[in-house]
Each structure stands twice: as structure tokens, then as C-alpha cells.
């Protein structure tokens, strides 16, 4: 592992550790690049398990100062993990253009209308809807890569036609647009049902770019064994693994 592009800190309110703890951990593991990608603050603060909007300025100032402090030792990059909420695309683009949050991860945890928790999908219809929304998101051109495409398997533990069709559609769309899809080490680490070997075996047929993301919420998880196991899975299934993002 020489880079990690999916990292949370205590700023997300469900993780631990300061930004600097993750940078130090990255340095100790020999990483050349680290992206800090908090769950994006949402206008109106509807979610108490992520950064509040009023905290953004302090977070941004701290991140900027750490980027400068460590500039000669590691490239720290700015990003956010965002749901595909069509009404917020202009806001996401502003964060990129005005504040330098260049790595916008599509992590579609909740349906576009905020009605379905995609970690707790229960029906084939919800699986299909997840895939449709993810593909719509990929087609906007706003997102840098797709986090945990197989997140529905957290709640929906079948490998049926709905899942096969959904994952095929996502991998085909991502491959066509050269948008990497992430094998998520945090899901493996906490045994959440994803990354699913059957899904990644299927991915090979569409040959999307793949990256391993640690999705660490604790500094010790940043470059843990689960990250290596995800990379092993990519090799096992002959996937096109990308280690550095341009
Ligand atoms: Zn999180
Ligand atoms: Zn994440």
C-alpha cells in the first residue's frame, strides 16, 4: 500500500483520532499519499453522525495547516465522501473549486430522496434502485471514485439476480467512464458482508479500474491487514488495480 484515498477522523463524529494521527500512521506505514475524506457536511445538518456545517471552517483550516506542515514528507490531499444527492451536486462542486476538495468519493449510503438506508436494504427493488442511483451519480462526472459498490450486501445477504444485475450495471458504467470502484477494507475488517468475493469475481468481466480504500475510522485501521487482504482479492480475481490516483 502506497496511498489511501478514503479516510475518516474524529471530525465525522463516529470515528476517533485527529487528522494528524492519521498522517503519522500513514508515515509510519510508508505511504506516499493520504486523502482525508470526511463524510461531507450536509446543509441543514440533518445527520448527527457527521461533521456539522459550522465546523467546516475549523476542519478546513486544520487540514490546510497539516498539509503544509507535512508537505515535504507526504502528499496529503483533500476530499469528501458524498452521497448522490442530485440537489447537492452544485454544493459538492463548490467544495472542489473553492476549497480544493479534489477527491469526491461517491459513497451512496442513503437513497437520493433520503428514504432508504443502503446499509439495510431488504428487497430486490431496493437493490435495483441503489444501482440506478449510483450509475446516475457516476454519469454526472462529479465523482472521483465509487466507494464500496457492494454496500447493499451489508443488509441484503443474497446473491440473486437483483444483485448480479445491479453490480453488473455499476461495473459496466464505471468501466465505460474510467471511474475506479473501491474494494473496501473497512467492510472486511468489521465483517459487514462487503466486499463480497462473488461481486468482485463478477467485476472481472467488466474490467473496471479498482482501488483499495481503507475507509479507516480509527488511525490503527489505516493500513491494517484488511487492506492487504483486499489487494490480495484484486490479484486473485485478476482485477485492474490502481494504486495512485492522478
Ligand atoms: Zn463513516
Ligand atoms: Zn467512508
Mind explaining what this structure looks like?
- The protein has helices spanning 19-28, 56-69, 89-99, 124-139, 161-176, 185-189, 197-203, 225-236, and strands spanning 3-4, 33-39, 75-82, 103-106, 145-146, 181-184, 209-213, 240-241.
- It is of the alpha/beta class.
- A 5-stranded parallel beta sheet has the order 1-2-3-4-5.
- Strand 1, helix 1 (19-28) and strand 2 form a beta-alpha-beta unit.
- Helix 4 runs parallel beside helix 5.
- The chain binds zinc ion (2 copies).
- One zinc ion (ZN) binds at residues 8, 12, 14, 39, 217.
Using brief descriptors, characterize the structure shown.
246 residues, alpha/beta, five-stranded parallel sheet, three-stranded parallel sheet, 8 helices, 37% helix, globular, binds zinc ion
Name the poorly predicted regions: none
Number of helical regions:
8
Distance between the termini: 16 Å
Radius of gyration: 17 Å
Ligand kinds:
zinc ion
- Oligomer designation: single chain
Order of helices and strands: EHEHEHEHEHEHHEHE
E-strand count: 8
> What share of the residues lie within helices?
25-40%
Helix-strand makeup class: alpha/beta
Sheet of most strands: 5 strands, parallel
- Strand order in the sheet with the most strands: 1-2-3-4-5
On the 0 to 100 scale, the average pLDDT is: 98
Q: Beta-sheet strand percentage?
A: 5-15%
